[in-house]
Write a structure and sequence with these properties.
Number of helices of chain A: 11
CATH class of chain A: Mainly Alpha
Shape of chain A: globular
CATH topology of chain A: Heme Oxygenase, Chain A
Number of domains of chain A: 1
Oligomer: homotetramer
Strand content of chain A: under 5%
CATH architecture of chain A: Up-down Bundle
Structural class of chain A: mainly alpha
Distance between the termini of chain A: 34 Å
Largest interface: A-D, 20 and 20 residues
Helix content of chain A: over 70%
């Protein structure tokens, strides 16, 4: 694999191969790459994603609360800021260019697939510990990194280059690499060097797979509304 | 209205009239009353409901944590016990009669609609306070009470009389009445006598409506799998 | 050791030997056994303990929320009920016999040592998982069991026999034994058979020791007000 | 009052006048102003405060989780960053100048008064909502602002000018003013314009007073160890 987001992510991804492929090679993703994705679908996705980012920032803030040390806290706090400031502003900007005002964007009605995903992640964090939260958060952060990096090479259209450039940027790739290191340390610290033999590992895989499935439903929602 | 589950419930229900009707007169409910509901659909629902009850018991336990006084604590703790002991045993019993072993029941895969509902309720409770949790929990408890009481009178078949008798029983009706009193007190204590004019009331209505919508999806899941 | 509350408890206790001795052979405890504890000190303790039990019941309810299976849920829910119903009623009864009305009891001002203890346990549970909560809850439940069993044999006075009989009763001892089994299973399920070699074990010891220290402060509070 | 940190803070402060005076004119504070505070006491305080800031950052992250809108989220996220980055680095710097290495600082044993305070605030947030958290967080943020502003004028010594300059700086004062606005909006949004007549107001005052008392204990800890 050309992309290296850490050992835990690699193992999670490997144990969820089919689910992961469904998410990362979804028709929506293909459409981003070849430009065939309908603008209405993209905007529907983007408006939902804006609400998603709000709750995703809340989930990363919960990771700060559940951290055991400064490295975990700082990584998680940086993600809260990246989401609340950079990423949400990007959505506001793209939407405005397409004639959707900030007010319209903020008043978007949250669709069921969106709600199902964000509440799943937050509840996993509230009921579990830092690792449960990481396993549920990783598919989104790293999946976008992997999709971005692949589409940068494979794309045949410039229609969605803003989106592709964002997630294939060195900044975003570095974020995935750094996050991978923090997750690996967090897991080794709590479950030991042979973490994949520990009893808790299966539960973390379940969170990873579930969140990956909910990512696919999110693409579905974009396509079907 | 012949049934009296308290003032807050009455107001919530009134402000969600259409959503409430969709839930309480759903095709699944009609089928319970006239016996036309396919057994496979009923068992699919029952197996999912078993998992639902586990998480619902966790949500009522969270209500104990979020309580402000002994009345709220005792009411919520009683519901945890009723769910963990009486109601789950009923599901085990009915399933066994239909040839589904306890082990099969416990290994049922949680479907997306089930997950979406339970995580929504738990997250509302974790992120909010006792009232947010009550508004999200009320539709299930009281909706089943209302449906049970109505089907007891209107039913034209005995096929699902076990289910109907459970929720129309005086015990269950009393539980709804008692819960209604605790919720009314809890709301007045926190929001004042004119609670429906308070700023928070709208947010509570939103939780009630959302949970009611998720109840309808739960019936859909029973019908469609 | 004549008392058997499980392997995890045995190891926690062993690794906190001095702290544990300070708690279980505290001057307050000695006074319960030889009857030399001033009634005012006992009543001050009892009134604080009433408030403590409220928050302790909330903490056990949080354990229901954080449970992974029905055994953990049922054990924790039973403790919520035992606390809310049996144990709190005992406090009400003893206080009434001493001329403290239920209303006075319920209006007792929570002292700092009480607050420090209960908030520590609840926060450990909210920020951590089921095991963090168990490690913080065990010292109180099992310490009282151990003290009760010892005083039953060693006591030289009947002044505080109500208290001693409660915690040396077969019912209470069985509760400790059952809880020990649930904790052992919960730990093995999450950390493996060699749990004491796992990375998380040290953190659990820290919770156990901290809660034990806070138990000693609670006795201090009884003596000094 | 020359300082204006918002209406809610003003009312909280007013209803806790004596407790507030004990905190803000504590012997420790007097010693910061006239330079008579022993260096050992100041360093003991500073080392505990470093650990305090870790948990305080977790509490502000919990405020992000419990926010209802972007303004609340951004304010809370900014505080997380200010604590994790600026304020903690200041402690590292001062300690290093006094010969306490970063490693020694990070390995400081948390004292009971410190633990009691941080766990109280976090638990108030987990069990309650955004407002409960704000009422428990306000005394520290705004108390330091008020003390800093007063000592800037009244101080008769330069010994602790670093500390005084930090909290009397325009940056810090602006942070208090901005926070005051966010809290006022948050309260009005949830409790209405006449919030001080609402049922919940008393509970918020209790959190404010309790946290203020725990601030005084924190100064005591600095003096007595």
């Amino acid at each position: 694999m050309p992309i290296e987001y850490g050992e835990s992510f690699f193992k999670w991804r490997e144990s969820s191969a089919e689910t992961w492929a469904t998410f990362t090679t979804h028709k929506f993703v293909v459409g981003l790459g070849n430009g065939m994705l309908a603008e209405a679908a993209f905007l529907r996705y983007l408006r939902q994603d804006y609400i998603f980012l709000l709750h995703f920032a809340r989930a990363w803030a919960l990771a700060v609360v559940k951290s055991d040390n400064l490295d975990e806290m700082r990584m998680s706090a940086n993600l809260v800021n990246a989401l609340l400031n950079d990423e949400m502003r990007l959505h506001v900007k793209i939407c405005q260019e397409k004639g959707i005002t900030r007010e319209e964007l903020e008043n978007t009605t949250e669709l069921p697939q969106n709600m199902a995903y964000t509440r799943y992640v937050l509840e996993a964090g509230f009921s579990g510990d830092f690792l449960d939260l990481m396993a549920a958060l990783a598919p989104c952060v790293m999946g976008y990194g992997e999709i971005g990096a692949r589409l940068k090479v494979e794309r045949t259209s410039d229609v969605y280059s803003d989106w592709i450039n964002t997630y294939s940027s060195q900044d975003y790739q570095n974020l995935c690499i750094d996050l991978g290191k923090v997750i690996d340390s967090a897991i080794i610290r709590r479950l030991g060097r042979n973490f994949y033999e520990s009893e808790r590992w299966d539960k973390l895989i379940t969170h990873f797979q579930q969140a990956t499935t909910l990512e696919s439903s999110f693409w579905d929602m974009g396509l079907k509304g």
